[in-house]
């Protein structure tokens, strides 16, 4: 029996990629593998924890910052002695204590990288306005420099680094990680589309019209402000077009104020975070999905939209270019380019034939990113 300790910064009921990824691996571990998951949490126990088919350890997130990291470290050290492999789902909050424990216990250590944490913090704290590619090449200072060096060091010391796209593989290679340590395993999708008709779905969400859906965390690089900005010009194309933004985050109030100041109430809707089941209803109601993002390591949203048969427009950055073939299964546009976005939306809106073609090709594309394949390749690597 191969015993694997998966460490994460978040876990269900938290919403986010690492939380769902950890749950997927825990629930679908192949025969011969035993999984333990450790994560920071707002509560030490939830009612459904006992029903999980794996051991779950929660570390109380509300402890003072330094103390909670120390508690996490000691718990990882304790569990590392009972497991063969440590697999961290980030390179800092879970990665650092996991690497320390792996070295002390002489265990193999793997880490998954889905982005640049130092860049995200720098943008969030307004220490940088650069996009992620430019951020890689500039000198960093203070706490941001410490974060950047920490995540690089963790990746360099790991036995293997898993990334979900060739784009991220290239970025991690620039961090000084040996190429033979970097493994691209595309994330799998298990999205279940709704069986509602378009009209039934629109009635259920209470928003009529021709619907443009966008989703993601409400942060600057997701480009939601540009989508709101171009809405008056889109309404000139069709007065019944509506923009729905799904998600939550630090830019929520700013986006709400922008919608109000532009007089776009009942034209642009901020509907908050939604579960997978609720997302399926919104996709069923949609005419198209747009991801105007300045950074995407590998987008689940694109694959979920494709699985739901929704034609996709996305910025030509990061992992998006590995999924979308221009004019074949979607449109690629320049990030935050007003003219490019309007023309792509206009072309998509005015051609039912094009929307049908993109929807059909999208379904074929997403079939290549199966959950079974992701799980199989991940556990094979961890056991290699």
What are the defining features of this structure?
384 residues; alpha/beta; Rossmann fold; seven-stranded parallel beta sheet; six-stranded parallel beta sheet; 13 strands; 17% strand
Kindly describe this structure.
By secondary structure, the chain is of the alpha/beta class. The chain folds into 2 domains: 2-188 and 371-382, 3-Layer(aba) Sandwich (Rossmann fold); 198-366, Glycogen Phosphorylase B (Rossmann fold). The chain has 17 helices and 13 strands. Strands 3-2-1-4-5-6-7 form a 7-stranded parallel β-sheet, sandwiched between helices. Strands 10-9-8-11-12-13 form a 6-stranded parallel β-sheet, with helices on both faces. Helix 11 (252-261) links the parallel strand 9 (241-246) and strand 10. The radius of gyration is 21 Å and the shape is globular.
Summarize the structure.
This protein is an alpha/beta fold and 384 residues long.
Furnish the topology, listing elements before pairings:
Layout: E1 2-8, H1 17-27, E2 33-41, E3 55-60, H2 65-80, E4 85-88, H3 95-105, E5 108-112, H4 117-124, H5 132-135, H6 142-157, E6 160-163, H7 166-174, E7 182-184, H8 198-205, E8 210-215, H9 224-229, H10 231-237, E9 241-246, H11 252-261, E10 268-270, H12 276-285, E11 288-291, H13 300-307, E12 312-315, H14 320-323, E13 331-333, H15 338-350, H16 352-366, H17 371-382
Parallel strand pairs: 1-2, 1-4, 2-3, 4-5, 5-6, 6-7, 8-9, 8-11, 9-10, 11-12, 12-13
């Amino acid at each position: 029996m191969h015993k694997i300790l998966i460490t994460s910064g978040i876990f269900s009921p938290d919403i986010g990629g690492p939380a769902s990824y950890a749950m997927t691996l825990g629930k679908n571990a192949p025969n011969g593998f035993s999984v333990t998951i450790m994560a920071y949490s707002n509560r030490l126990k939830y009612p459904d924890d006992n029903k999980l088919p794996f051991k779950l350890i929660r570390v109380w997130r509300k402890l003072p910052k330094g103390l909670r990291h120390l508690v996490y470290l000691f718990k990882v050290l304790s569990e590392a002695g009972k497991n063969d492999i440590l697999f961290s789902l980030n390179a800092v909050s879970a990665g650092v204590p996991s690497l320390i424990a792996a070295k002390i216990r002489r265990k193999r250590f793997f880490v998954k990288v889905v982005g640049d944490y130092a860049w995200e913090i720098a943008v969030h704290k307004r220490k940088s306005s650069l996009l992620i590619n430019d951020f890689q090449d500039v000198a960093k200072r203070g706490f941001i420099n410490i974060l950047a060096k920490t995540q690089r060091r963790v990746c360099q010391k790991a036995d293997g680094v898993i990334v979900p796209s060739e784009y991220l593989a290239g970025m991690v290679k620039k961090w000084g990680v040996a190429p033979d340590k970097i493994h691209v395993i595309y994330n799998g999708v298990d999205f279940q589309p709704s069986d509602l008709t378009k009209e039934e779905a629109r009635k259920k969400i209470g928003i009529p019209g021709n619907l443009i859906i966008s989703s993601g965390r409400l942060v600057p690089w997701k480009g939601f402000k540009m989508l709101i900005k171009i809405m008056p010009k889109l309404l000139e194309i069709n007065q019944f077009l509506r923009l729905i933004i799904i998600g939550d985050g630090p830019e929520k109030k700013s986006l709400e104020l922008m919608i109000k100041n532009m007089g776009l109430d009942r034209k642009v809707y901020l509907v908050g975070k939604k579960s997978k089941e609720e997302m399926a209803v919104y996709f069923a109601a949609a005419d198209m999905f747009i991801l105007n993002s300045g950074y995407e390591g590998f987008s689940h949203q694109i694959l979920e939209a494709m699985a739901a048969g929704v034609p996709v427009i996305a910025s030509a950055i990061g992992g998006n270019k590995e999924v979308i073939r221009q004019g074949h299964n979607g449109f690629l546009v320049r990030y935050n380019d007003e003219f490019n976005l309007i023309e792509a939306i206009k072309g998509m809106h005015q051609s039912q034939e094009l929307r049908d073609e993109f929807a059909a090709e999208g379904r074929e594309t997403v079939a290549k990113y199966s959950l079974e394949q992701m799980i199989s390749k991940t556990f094979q690597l961890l056991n290699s």
